[in-house]
Amino acid sequence: MKIYNIALIGFGGVNRALAELIAIKNPLWERDLGFRLNIVAVSDLHLGSVISPNGLDAKTLVEANFAKGGFGRLSGGNAEADNEAIIKTAPADIVVEATFTNPMDGEPAVSHCRWALNSGKHVVTTNKGPVAIAARELKALAKANSVHFEYEGSVMSGTPVIRMAEKTLAGAEVKGFEGILNGTSNFVLGRMEEGLDFASAVAEAQALGYAEADPTADVEGFDVRLKVVILANELLGANLKPEDVSCNGISKLSPSDIQAAAKTGRRWKLVGSAVRNADGTITGSVAPKQLALGHPLTGVNGATNAVSLNTELLGPVTMSGPGAGRVETAYALLSDIVAIHNAQSANFAKEAA
Amino acid sequence: MKIYNIALIGFGGVNRALAELIAIKNPLWERDLGFRLNIVAVSDLHLGSVISPNGLDAKTLVEANFAKGGFGRLSGGNAEADNEAIIKTAPADIVVEATFTNPMDGEPAVSHCRWALNSGKHVVTTNKGPVAIAARELKALAKANSVHFEYEGSVMSGTPVIRMAEKTLAGAEVKGFEGILNGTSNFVLGRMEEGLDFASAVAEAQALGYAEADPTADVEGFDVRLKVVILANELLGANLKPEDVSCNGISKLSPSDIQAAAKTGRRWKLVGSAVRNADGTITGSVAPKQLALGHPLTGVNGATNAVSLNTELLGPVTMSGPGAGRVETAYALLSDIVAIHNAQSANFAKEAA
Hints:
The structure is a homodimer of 353-residue chains.
Chain A lengths: L1 E8 L3 H20 L2 E10 L3 E4 L6 H6 L13 E2 L4 H7 L4 E4 L11 H10 L3 E4 L2 H17 L4 E2 L10 H8 L5 E7 L2 H11 L4 H10 L8 H4 L2 H14 L10 E2 L7 H9 L3 E10 L5 E10 L12 E8 L3 E8 L3 H27 L1
Parallel strand pairs in A: 1-2, 1-5, 5-6, 6-7, 9-11
Antiparallel strand pairs in A: 2-3, 3-4, 8-10, 8-12, 10-11, 12-13
């Protein structure tokens, strides 16, 4: 049985949910997946940082109600976060990057990933920024250091659409995709179908915790644009940057637009898509579209996300599931660690042979 | 670059579509997947059988309009089918089983699989019979002979739901599933929503080639029952036989049932499902159910199939795609061969190390 020592960078909702899972699921994972996870370091801008080579008790970590700088009171702790030192010096096999997404240059998460990979540590992340902006560089860096860079949770949280396409559709010839990739905007559109105006629907999403205080990234399509870049680069072999993808949100749709569509059996959806053109180039876009009954994305309701892959041999193949959520996103990190474990086990068998 | 020699057992729509793909796609597969396929034998009850150790030209095989017993006129051919001899003696790496499904004992396909596995040949099949009735035995036989038994196409044709669950959802804790697993019955229900009575909707499905002359297996749920057995055994570790799964079809639904549901935003669907009970046992069933708006299967229209996996950490994760079709089902065979190739490549690397 294998133990992976992990360092958590950021201790907000997602990494806290991962620690909660570790506190209760390690025996199950040991039995079913062949490994346990051991938290040897945590760093968080608010709480500070801590290194504990023998491992921190996950339950204590989750249940202690740390105040600002609270990690400073732990053995091996520091009231200040020092991400660089933690990433470079903690005795971790895997760095779990779950800090905030910066859509402009991906920092500081891109640096976090670079430091980890250059230190010979695997990286798993749910952070769209470094994947949308620097996946090609970081994948090359991982390869050069014989470690893995995995990021299933950067799109659709734990719904494994990236790995599904890569592990199960080889030879089906993916030609493009369309997706509902932002739960907040899809929720807002659903409430507008039920009669609310845009502002009221956004206010309700905020009250329910779906939308942030500034809902711009969700409703203007900027969040979806990063996900289109990630999926186009990953599934279609593109090399898009966010500014290459045209981007229109839903804020200009009126209740009468929505209701006019409904009268003809159609629904407005915010669709992120990419397609391979005849000349081999890839075009990505984010735009509201009227989808007819029978389109694979028309029935996707509420905060659910979905991606429909258009394939040569199968036509559309669609996966839907959660697109957000603490535990759901923490599962993405687990699924990345499973992928690393399976690849490591194969390597180990190879070396032993 | 690897060449896999394959023997086609049955030369109906599916294996003929595979031969059509081989005729045009081998160069693409060589580049993208790392192998070519070479047809070294074919056996078909109507056409006879042929063995050609250097390989048959796929294009010729597809385009020649063979009459009954027509393989007898080929070099190495025989006007009679001799499946046993072909399977045991053809110089094939992989036996591609695509004969008719026998829902009672799975024969003769179960014997075809046994002969192939005992001869040290991999088996890929789209045939529900041997998988629903003998998967456990055949998997053990494959393991004992160090070969693979793969059957993605036994459920949802080429839509890779089995491999998706196994390769991408480890640790998500699948607790059960619900599926729309028969396109004909789903098409019939859709037409009944539009006002047709059951008999007229079935007649239309027959006219369009969706339903067979005897539609019993589709509309009474027997086809779905085999798929429930396959998925329950595969994804939930059950050991169900078809007779363990309760089975009710859609023939007793009236247009007024359908329309009463529609008035409350619900839709009748023929749902195949299985669930892990508190005591660890698995219960499978096939039954028409009224699904509410928002259920992941409610929007599945026409001949599309879908499976929604209920998971502990992600909630429902749903995959939809084609459930039938010649090329779509042939793709399932290709995806099985990709899986074998990837496993063989890993083994080869291990042995070379």
